[in-house]
Specification:
4 helices, mainly alpha, globular
Length: 78
């Protein structure tokens, strides 16, 4: 868990990166959260989340991968 100041810096940097990349080139992002859950990631900041998602989902192709985690296989076999 990170403290609030660190969280805010990370959140702001992510927003700056996505904003800078918007309309300039391809960006690949992976997450285990659906879009509806993103506000909770950004500490309930609906405005920031909405602005970030507006940039991310414009011209997007979302690929949903379902099934067991490949990373979890090593732990399951042990």
């Amino acid at each position: 868990m990170v403290d609030y100041e660190t969280f805010c810096r990370i959140r702001d940097h992510l927003f700056q990166i996505i904003s800078h990349r918007y309309e300039r080139g391809a960006t690949l992002l992976t997450t285990n959260r659906i879009y509806k859950q993103w506000a909770s990631i950004f500490n309930g900041d609906a405005t920031l989340t909405s602005a970030l998602l507006d940039r991310l989902v414009d011209h997007v192709e979302t690929v949903l991968i379902e099934g067991k985690s490949y990373r979890g296989q090593d732990h399951a076999e042990a």
